[in-house]
Amino acid sequence: MSVNRLQQLKGHILPENKITAMAGPASPLTTHVLNTALGVPGANMALSLHRQDPSTSAWRLINTGITNADGRCPGLITTQMFTSGVYRLHFDTAQYWQSMGETCFYPYVEIVFTITDPSQKHHVPLLLSRFSYSTYRGS
């Protein structure tokens, strides 16, 4: 097993990382990037969250972030800001793969979804390889 993989496993096991990841109020919308080609979290990927203005159909930036070592981006949106509507998560996949010395087919991935009940928890993971991606509504 490679040293890099052992360090990643250590990061998932140590309680100190779990405490930091849970600090602050929980976001009603979460995401998790998984690099399925290597079987590791998609760490250090830039992403942004947008909401579509219902009257103009223009996209408004809500927040930007970078995935942590676990491939997650805590604090995407507050409960107060999370309302019904159409949202878009934009993932900068080209920069992610370039940082590992690789190329990819999809320079970015955008996932557009509709929120009808903002009181529910919504999880939108991205499963990613250099030549494919998949997503689903998680819990």
Low-pLDDT runs: 12-23
Oligomer: single chain
Rg calculated over all Cα atoms: 16 Å
| Fraction in beta strands | 25-35%
Task: Give the fraction of residues assigned to helices.
Answer: 10-25%
Strand order of the largest sheet: 3-2-9-10
**What is the count of helical runs?**
3
What do the pLDDT scores average to?
88
Order of helices and strands: HHEEEEEEHEEEE
Estimate the global geometry from the Cα principal axes. Answer: globular
Largest sheet: 4 strands, mixed
- The N- and C-terminal alpha carbons lie at a distance of 31 Å
Number of strands: 10
Structural classification = alpha+beta
Task: Please provide a written account of the structure.
- It is a single chain.
- The protein is globular, with a radius of gyration of 16 Å.
- The model is unreliable at 12-23 (pLDDT under 50).
- The strands form 3 sheets. Strands 3-2-9-10 form a 4-stranded mixed sheet, with no helix packed on it. The protein has a 4-stranded antiparallel sheet with strand order 5-4-6-7. Strands 1-8 form a two-stranded parallel ribbon.
- The chain has 139 residues and is of the alpha+beta class.
- It is 18% helix and 33% strand.
- It contains 3 helices and 10 strands; from the N terminus they run H-H-E-E-E-E-E-E-H-E-E-E-E.
- Strand 4 (46-52) and strand 5 form a beta hairpin.
- The protein has helices at 3-13, 15-22, 93-98, and strands at 29-30, 33-35, 40-41, 46-52, 59-66, 85-91, 109-115, 122-123, 126-129, 132-135.
